């Protein structure tokens, strides 16, 4: 009996705090349906890695190093960036770029909504973070979990756990954050603007050539983004080529599901109490919110600027969809449009800006890597 309860003496308050944090993430995933595919495994992993001498993570016991299974998974799938890249194949296979191809000007919104990345990068550096850590924190504004993991791991940031939690938590909070921000920087008249829907037809050859051209262009503009954009576009090419239907279905379902399970619980290795419960972690959570807010502001302000000169006005709310939280942001903006006017259908424009944001966020990540490396 003494042996059974001996480990209780190794338990510290900070471990219990991390259990509570893990429990909150699990609650949000189950009760509030907030990014459950990731918040649930991350939350459970946070509890797992904060059990003293659990064996889940590498520990030194009586001078003997015992390698933890989660560290093995981390080295096999995250340290070498394998999991995020494989996940991008699945994301690419799930994206239909037709709304963007029918309205290419949505690319500008995708670019504008990356403003939060560079603003937060600068702010984090001014607050005293190392330049590589600041770059890793800024990429939370990509609103894209795999990109955040890829960039933070590339810079070997010691705040990887906090960055991942912030990235996925704020992605889940998009339905709360974006409406709050948008209503404060737009007028009701602007939110009522109707946009003419373009005929949603694109030749198959264009859909096939698009991922190839984007990969080439991105590779020239931001060479370090090639791995990310290349895997994303490869997944989309599998979808659009029309001769790999079985692979396309696998890439859309089984592959991302499997990788997401492993990714979620593996990143928890960076949520051990001694690394996670720091002042820097809470600063990162705050900076992550700043990144999401300024992403939204950047996209909306571009829409307002365009309306100063354009004959056919754009609804500035669509600009907020330029973040990479696909398709959540597009649904949020479409819903906001219907709340203002039940006959204002912004979905296709919103989706176009949203998929543009997926591309722009990856390229922005590559630009950050080029800039700081």
What is the topological layout?
Blueprint: H1 2-5, H2 13-30, H3 36-48, E1 59-61, E2 64-66, H4 69-77, H5 82-94, H6 98-102, H7 106-112, H8 115-126, H9 131-138, H10 145-154, H11 160-172, H12 174-185, H13 188-191, H14 204-221, H15 226-240, H16 245-252, H17 254-266, H18 273-276, H19 279-306, H20 328-340, H21 347-372
Antiparallel strand pairs: 1-2
Helix pairs in contact: 2-3, 3-17, 4-17, 5-10, 5-15, 5-16, 5-17, 7-19, 7-21, 8-9, 8-19, 9-10, 10-11, 10-21, 11-19, 12-19, 12-20, 14-15, 20-21
Structural overview:
- The chain is an all-alpha fold and 373 residues long.
- Helices cover 68% and strands 2% of the residues.
- The protein has 21 helices and 2 strands.
- It has helices spanning 2-5, 13-30, 36-48, 69-77, 82-94, 98-102, 106-112, 115-126, 131-138, 145-154, 160-172, 174-185, 188-191, 204-221, 226-240, 245-252, 254-266, 273-276, 279-306, 328-340, 347-372, and strands at 59-61, 64-66.
- Strands 1-2 form a two-stranded antiparallel ribbon.
- A hairpin with a 2-residue loop joins β1 (59-61) and β2 (64-66).
- The relative contact order is 0.18.
- The model has no long low-confidence stretch (mean pLDDT 87).
